[in-house]
Design brief:
583 residues; COBRA1; NELFB factor
């Protein structure tokens, strides 16, 4: 148990005798038994009826300690109930006055394990614990740990460094969780990084813990946002932007108006959240979002920094990009140009605000990035021409072919397309989503045509984790193509392997894909891939681990040498049947 000094901590200041006093009395007396009896009388429970009951308990062998302990526990329960009741009754000033008096009387006993819960309970119900007491709690690790979160909030709001120490491990955990999903060994086009609904994501452990820590405290909320901005600037990691939006929406779910009404992004984020849930920006919500952007007043431009961070959330970008691709397809059907579609222009405006978040927060220049005219007049019509090429090819395939030979699928890419993907961030983002779109449609021809454009893209976006996570998922739909040498050469040698040696994450994604599809890949190709993907001394643990898993799987597929050599000679000549490729 606790050291004696701790068990009685603070009793002396209150003029209550403790074990030390008894020891002193017994050391300096002639008749110990009498002294003990006197000590018991002076310090026992002062109820006349107990005078006769205690000897009766003694007869039953119940130790006095046990009796006093149970009386004490009862009283403590009653006291805790009473404190919680005081916190709710009477006029505000009066009830807090009562609690403050109680704290004054009991605080010296805060180190006594048996009394501590009562002191903590009093503090928990005080909206403002006296500064001096907070300082004492803060200076003592164990007391700080034992505090209710309501008291900790009062400590944190004036101690950013201490609050930072509490929040930091949660933020690390959050980023790790995101990366684990992106690199997960389960590859599927049905379930991916973007599958969970916003509401489900907000139930995550980190978001819930942060929400709990912040409570209704605007100052703490602002501190967390400041941490997120700083980390986003330092690392460029976009998952911090997701957390920014999730935190606000988690407080929104709990209807914490104290915070939601003072965050200027609240309504915008709420509307965008509904779009993310549908994975589409419909016309009504588009108008609403546009209203918020157009409504940013002179002198309040700083809010653009926050809005850009909300729009930089990968879940927002995903929604905007998917909506853009859908709009382009509709425009092809309506024979309309991109510049004639206000909805499409708004999507681009939000994409460019999101993609410009880092620069805006870094430079502290709060104005919307300029939209390049070429994006709208040249790049998007190019994408639309690819959609048209697909339609034409499909229709041609269906026409009777007596009078003409088969029409080949266009195999060259306009140079402008490649250049746009290299030089324009928004064009690159939309181009990558178009490639994901055709892969999902199992459009092998279009995929192989555009793939070479991905080797060099704006800030290597085609080798980013989110894109590769989605691409590997969609490629499972083209599984049967992996048996073809030509397809594998284009995909692996022409794309993945160009970056494997300089980018560890690409190495990981290729291994993930092969772990999933190795049984579909032509054996000769698989062997050369196994050589090409062997980890180097510089490779991290994750790559080595994946490579070992792949090697094990391939070992299991090889027939054992015994089976190969000792085929018993058959009496009857059998017709040779090609054996199906072993899975």
């Amino acid at each position: 148990g606790p050291a004696p000094s701790e068990m009685y901590a603070g009793l002396q200041e209150l003029g209550v005798a403790n074990g030390e006093d008894l020891k002193e009395t017994l050391t300096n007396c002639t008749e110990p038994l009498k002294a003990i009896e006197q000590f018991q009388t002076e310090n026992g429970v002062l109820l006349p009826s107990l005078q006769y009951a205690l000897p009766f308990l003694d007869l039953h062998g119940t130790p006095r300690l046990e009796f006093h302990q149970s009386v004490f526990d009862e009283l403590r329960e009653k006291l805790l109930e009473r404190v919680s009741a005081i916190a709710l009754e009477g006029k505000v000033e009066e009830r807090y006055k009562k609690l403050e008096d109680l704290l004054e009387k009991s605080f010296s006993l805060v180190k006594m394990p048996s009394i501590q819960p009562v002191v903590m309970c009093v503090m928990k119900h005080l909206p403002k614990v006296p500064e001096k007491k907070l300082k004492l709690v803060m200076a003592d690790k164990d007391l700080y740990k034992a505090c209710a979160v309501e008291v900790k909030r009062q400590i944190w709001q004036d101690n950013q460094a201490l609050f930072g120490d509490e929040v930091s491990p949660l933020l690390k955990q959050y980023i790790l969780e995101k990366e684990n999903i992106l690199f997960s060994n389960d590859i599927s086009f049905l379930q991916n990084f973007f599958s969970p609904s916003p509401k489900t994501r907000r139930q995550g452990e980190v978001v819930q813990k942060l929400t709990q820590m912040i409570g209704k405290n605007v100052k703490l909320y602002d501190m967390v946002l400041q941490f997120l901005r700083t980390l986003f600037l330092r690392t460029r990691n976009v998952h911090y932007c997701t957390l920014r939006a999730e935190l606000l929406m988690s407080l929104h779910d709990l209807e914490i108006s104290e915070i939601c009404t003072v965050d200027p992004c609240h309504k915008f984020t709420w509307c965008l959240d509904a779009c993310i849930r549908e994975k589409f920006v419909d016309n009504k919500r588009a108008r609403e979002l546009q209203g918020f952007l157009d409504g940013v007043k002179k002198g309040q431009e700083q809010v653009l920094g926050d809005l850009s961070m909300i729009l930089c959330d990968p879940f927002a970008i995903n929604t905007l990009a998917l909506s853009t691709i859908r709009h382009l397809q509709d425009l092809v059907g309506q024979d309309t140009l991109p510049r004639e579609s206000p909805d499409l222009l708004l999507l681009l405006r939000m994409l460019s605000l999101g993609q410009g978040a880092w620069d805006m927060i870094d430079s502290q220049v709060f104005k919307e990035p300029k939209m390049e005219a070429e994006l709208i007049t040249r790049f998007l019509p190019l994408l639309m021409s690819f959609v048209v090429d697909d339609h034409t090819f499909t229709v041609d395939q269906k026409l009777p072919s007596e009078e003409k030979g088969p029409i080949p699928y266009p195999s060259t890419i306009p140079e402008a397309f490649t250049k746009f993907l290299q030089e324009n961030r928004i064009a690159c983002e939309i181009g990558l989503y178009y490639i994901l779109h055709i892969t999902k449609q199992r459009n092998k021809n279009a995929f192989l045509r555009l793939l070479p454009a991905l080797v060099e893209t704006f800030s290597d976006l085609a080798f980013s984790d989110i894109f590769l996570h989605l691409l590997t998922g969609n490629l499972t739909l083209l599984g049967d193509e992996f048996a073809l040498e030509e397809f594998c050469t284009s995909l692996f040698d022409g794309f993945f392997l160009t970056a494997c040696s300089r980018k560890e994450n690409v190495h990981r994604h290729v291994l993930r894909l092969l772990l999933h599809l190795h049984h579909k890949v032509a054996p000769a190709k698989l062997e050369s891939l196994q050589k090409a993907l062997e980890p180097t001394k510089q490779s991290g643990e994750a790559v080595k681990e994946l490579y070992n898993q792949l090697t094990e799987k391939l070992e299991l597929r090889k027939p054992s040498p015994a089976e190969v050599t000792e085929t018993p000679s058959m009496e009857l000549p059998l017709p040779t049947v090609p054996t199906p490729a072993s899975r």
